[in-house]
């Protein structure tokens, strides 16, 4: 019996499996560096804001794939603590079952935007010699800018971020922006941090009928957001994003990384560069 038939799990594509590889590589390097720090000794944690059930099914092989929570739990030397969050009660229940009772693991059910700001980030203060690696991998445009800004200003948290360009294009960045509904506009504004996305996501185009607005290229949109991570949020280092592609080469989303440390920038850039041609056709 294949994994696909035993129980209902989310299926993940080629690009998601690559993302998990990338995350494992950096988490391993990050934990090794943090664990070696002795003066002062640092307490480093792993945070997953959209943790899911812990396992998924590969569309490529049909077999089980360990998700980001289980991958993080397998890192050696280990993180000191783990914070896993998901809005879906069934996924949370499955994750609790897989992880079991552990004093170093904290699992939350609910909106990560609130939980991160009120319950998790306050436990990772720079002045308390705590550091965190945070994965923000939303299913779409379901993340508030306030989370990004707080992480940057705390100086103790590094972030991997899924920039969901496909969801944006489907629901908000239309060729005729005036037809986008208020709900989708509000989602984009919350994700972007203000309404400047409406300017940066479109370019003026001269036609026979006058000036019209045309959607900017995907690369231009993600680069505008990358600039906000540096100039508005305050992250010192935001390397060029990695385009995550499906097996046909189409860009599904961009993987961004943000940190205050140059060594983190160097490590992630090296990892990203090794994957830049994966999925390209």
In what order do the strands lie side by side in the largest sheet? 6-5-2-7-8-12-11
Query: What is the global morphology?
Result: globular
Which superfamily, in CATH terms, is the homologous superfamily? Vaccinia Virus protein VP39
Tell me the domain tally. 1
- N- and C-termini, Cα separation: 34 Å
Strand-pairing-aware structural class: alpha/beta
- Proportion of residues in extended strands: 15-25%
The CATH class name reads Alpha Beta
Mean of the pLDDT scores? 90
* Biggest sheet record: 7 strands, mixed
Q: What Rg is obtained from the alpha carbons, in whole angstroms?
A: 19 Å
CATH architecture: 3-Layer(aba) Sandwich
* Estimated helix fraction: 40-55%
Describe the fold and architecture:
The radius of gyration is 19 Å and the shape is globular. The chain is built from 11 helices and 12 strands. Helix 2 (about 15-35) runs antiparallel to helix 11. The chain has about 280 residues and is α/β, with parallel strands linked by helices. The longest helix is centred in the N-terminal third of the chain and has 23 residues, at about 15-35. The model is unreliable at about 1-5 (pLDDT under 50). The chain has helices at about 5, 15-35, 70-75, 90-100, 110-120, 145-155, 165-170, 180-190, 195-200, 220-235, 260-275; strands spanning about 10, 45-50, 55-60, 65, 80-85, 105-110, 130-135, 155-165, 200-205, 210-215, 240-245, 250-260. The strands form 3 sheets. The chain has a 7-stranded mixed beta sheet, sandwiched between helices. It has a 3-stranded mixed beta sheet with strand order 1-3-4. Strands 9-10 form a two-stranded antiparallel ribbon. The protein has one domain (about 5-165, about 220-275): Vaccinia Virus protein VP39 (Rossmann fold), CATH 3.40.50.
